[in-house]
Amino acid sequence: GGGRRFVRSHDYDSPCKQMKFYFHDILYDYSNSTTNSTSAAATKPTALATAVSSNGTFFGQMVVFDDPMTSSSALPPLLNVTADSVRAQGLYLYDKKEAYNAWFAFSIVFNSTVYGHGTLQLMGADIISQKTRDISVVGGTGDFFMSRGVATLRTDAVEGFVYFRLQMDIKLYECYV
Amino acid sequence: GGGRRFVRSHDYDSPCKQMKFYFHDILYDYSNSTTNSTSAAATKPTALATAVSSNGTFFGQMVVFDDPMTSSSALPPLLNVTADSVRAQGLYLYDKKEAYNAWFAFSIVFNSTVYGHGTLQLMGADIISQKTRDISVVGGTGDFFMSRGVATLRTDAVEGFVYFRLQMDIKLYECYV
Amino acid sequence: GGGRRFVRSHDYDSPCKQMKFYFHDILYDYSNSTTNSTSAAATKPTALATAVSSNGTFFGQMVVFDDPMTSSSALPPLLNVTADSVRAQGLYLYDKKEAYNAWFAFSIVFNSTVYGHGTLQLMGADIISQKTRDISVVGGTGDFFMSRGVATLRTDAVEGFVYFRLQMDIKLYECYV
User: Fold this and answer.
1) What is the pLDDT of residue A79?
2) Domain map of chain A by residue range?
3) Per-residue pLDDT for A55 more than 80?
4) Which end of chain A has the least Cβ crowding within 10 Å, N or C?
5) Helix, coil or strand: residue B97
6) Which of B51, B96, B174 faces A34 most closely, judged by CB atoms?
7) What is the mean pLDDT of residues C168-174?
8) C27 inside 8 A of chain A by CB
9) Which chain B residues touch A144 with a CB distance below 8 Å?
10) Tell me: the pLDDT tens digits for B35-75?
11) What is the pLDDT of residue C77?
């Protein structure tokens, strides 16, 4: 409860709030560690994906994830801890038949002494061929009540089909403080 | 058409518009009533879900729903009526391998003499272990043109795997009136 | 970077920005052209869909798409070109067991000399039985930085289960210019 003040930033380089994270996705491939895996394919690549590309663009595959987000690039020592953590939970889809390209919709769940408590909702096109790509922060709750903004994604590491790490620079331009 | 006035509320406890509903989800389990069922699993739990938990956290399962929303907790007499109704349509995912936890993305479709006509779009983390959890209202149309806000969810009833009922307290903080 | 000015429109008929497109969806049906197909079913209709309707409402089917958007109703000569294009990428679901009805969540990716560069994020109920239906524009990036608005959909053509074309009238009411 209690009143808040609304703050709007008009400048891409001067958000009203900014946070930088690494997003770690460890895809279960049926043989790797179930303890360490943080995501899994909920659907197979579609028949269209298979028909156009033998080595796989995964068109239509949906992955569900519960991925840790960290302030430095190292994986956290315990991947599934939910106390004092920041986690991204939701889905991504592979959405292009000629290339490896994705679309994201997810929440970031903050349960953190550093960053606070609450959630942000994000959605957008992860155009993998671009060095950086912006997706939208479309809402927030708790300490991020009613926030809006942009998150800039940059691929930081890829290890086969099992692990990727994104830098995620979250910039809020509408804040209730 | 016609001009509207923009109203912003800065106080969690004093939204510019508030509506309280019960959200009823009756999952088709291959044996219950097809007439009464309002949702169905579009994907099975992933191999990761099965590997980590024999009694099921359903990690990666996506459910598609067309769920009635009512102002009192009783189920409506006719579950599929669309005249003078409020319905929630979209998806939820189970998104945690160690626990039963969900993520929602859906629209509320108002076709109601009481609440008006139009839609609200919602998205967020349904952290089932918390007594109440807030998700975001990220947009609206018709009588809810351009609305934003928060919906507070509280589990009100659970009957096995086939029925659950949520209280949904919708609070809008950006209204065009 | 650089400062922008925030503009809000209060009138449905006078958005701060407006763009009209045709949205082309060519569903892969396992036999048509893989070159021309722009979408594919990632899940089958659920058992509930099959149980209630032999001729198909597809309840629970999710389709992933990478659909061209054009300013005139004709299909573009090359369906998969990404240079100087506007494309819609994301998912739709069939979400009603008694009728053919859909729900959308997607991004529009602009890479266009005419419309600019960036993305819009959209989400909402596509109530197919209504002549026109509004969905929400919940965020934007690049030239559409932080935009919000409404997109009005109208079915323009349907050819069996393989092709449909929507008119999409995008109206933004919150613009950063």
Assistant:
1) 79
2) 15-73+84-176
3) no
4) N
5) coil
6) B51
7) 98
8) no
9) none
10) 899 999 999 999 999 898 776 799 999 999 999 999 999 99
11) 84
What separation, in Å, do the N-terminal and C-terminal C-alpha atoms of chain C show? 12
pLDDT of residue B131: 96
| B6-73+83-176: CATH topology | AOC barrel-like (2.40.480)
CA distance B92 to C125: 15
**What is the complex's ipTM, to 2 decimals?**
0.97
Return the CATH fold of C23-72+83-176.
AOC barrel-like (2.40.480)
B97-145 residue pLDDT tens: 989 899 999 999 999 999 999 999 999 999 999 999 999 999 999 999 9
- Given a contact cutoff of 8 angstroms between Cβ atoms, the answer to whether C44 and B62 are in contact is no
B155/chain C closest Cα distance in angstroms: 23
Residue in B with minimal Cα distance to C98:
B80
Q: Model confidence over C55-81: pLDDT tens digits?
A: 679 999 999 999 999 999 999 888 777
Chain A neighbours, 3+ Cβ pairs < 8 A? B, C
- B-C contacts (CB, under 8 Å): 116
What is d(CA C126, CA A146) in angstroms, rounded to the nearest whole number? 26
Asked whether the beta carbons of C63 and C86 are under 8 A apart, the reply is: no
A24 DSSP β-pair partners: A165
Question: Residue C150 and residue C136: Cα distance in Å, rounded?
Answer: 5
Q: CB of C163 within 8 A of CB of C27?
A: yes
Type of residue numbered B62: M
List of long-range contacts for B33-38, beta carbons under 8 Å, 24+ apart: B34/C48, B34/C51, B34/C52, B34/C97, B35/B79, B35/B80, B35/C52, B36/B79, B37/C48, B37/C97, B38/B65, B38/B66, B38/B67, B38/B68, B38/B79
The CATH code of domain A15-73+84-176 reads 2.40.480
Range from A55-59, A139-143, C69-73, C115-119 carrying the lowest mean pLDDT: A55-59
